[in-house]
């Protein structure tokens, strides 16, 4: 997945918040600097550090991504770039394994159907422990677009 970051203009803004901006080059450097051995369990918040953590683990290992609720039952992450847990609306939360190929296919489908690319910016206000939130980060890393991080809002 690291090639998703390094294939874009390193000076193009990738992640922006109301107070700072980071380029593809800066994020790629941050991903390169962090070691990962195997699988990591992440409890991502809606912040830049969590976004970098997710990109690092998906580039170099695999991530079991858990939200703010109690720990779900264990799942084997073998062969997965990520394991994301369902909401548990029909019983216990279940781990869904997603490979890099799954993420790439979803990013390609999104680019094809929504016609977005490097000139576009996605607003990210969804939790990163949900597929919808993490998809925004990954499709932007893949397409070369920017992510505008909104860590909260008052409707």
Task: Provide key terms for this protein.
single chain, 155 residues, alpha/beta, 4-stranded mixed β-sheet, 8 strands, globular
Q: Can you put this structure into words, describing what you see?
A:
The structure is a single chain. With 155 residues, this protein is α/β, with parallel strands linked by helices. Helix content is 36%, strand content 20%. The protein contains five helices and eight strands; from the N terminus they run H-E-E-H-E-H-E-E-E-H-E-H-E. The strands form two sheets. A four-stranded mixed beta sheet has the order 2-1-8-7. It has a four-stranded mixed beta sheet with strand order 3-4-5-6. The longest helix is centred in the last third of the chain and has 15 residues, at 100-114. It is globular. The model has no long low-confidence stretch (mean pLDDT 87).
- Compute the average pLDDT: 87
Characterize the biggest β-sheet.
4 strands, mixed
How many strands?
8
In terms of DSSP E residues, the strand content is 15-25%
- pLDDT < 50 runs, ≥5 residues: none
Instruction: Quote the distance from N terminus to C terminus.
Output: 35 Å
């Amino acid at each position: 997945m690291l090639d998703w970051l390094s294939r874009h203009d390193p000076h193009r803004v990738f992640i922006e918040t109301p107070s700072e901006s980071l380029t593809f080059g800066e994020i790629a450097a941050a991903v390169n600097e962090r070691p990962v051995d195997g699988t990591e369990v992440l409890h991502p918040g809606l912040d830049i550090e969590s976004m970098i953590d997710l990109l690092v683990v998906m580039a170099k290992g695999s991530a079991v991504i858990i939200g703010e609720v109690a720990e779900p039952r264990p799942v084997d992450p073998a062969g997965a770039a990520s394991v994301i847990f369902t909401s548990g609306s029909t019983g216990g939360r279940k781990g869904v394994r997603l490979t890099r190929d799954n993420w790439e296919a979803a990013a390609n489908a999104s680019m094809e159907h929504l016609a977005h690319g490097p000139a576009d910016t996605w607003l990210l206000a969804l939790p990163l422990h949900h597929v919808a939130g993490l998809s925004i980060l990954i499709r932007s890393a893949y397409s070369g677009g920017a992510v505008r991080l909104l860590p909260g809002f008052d409707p």
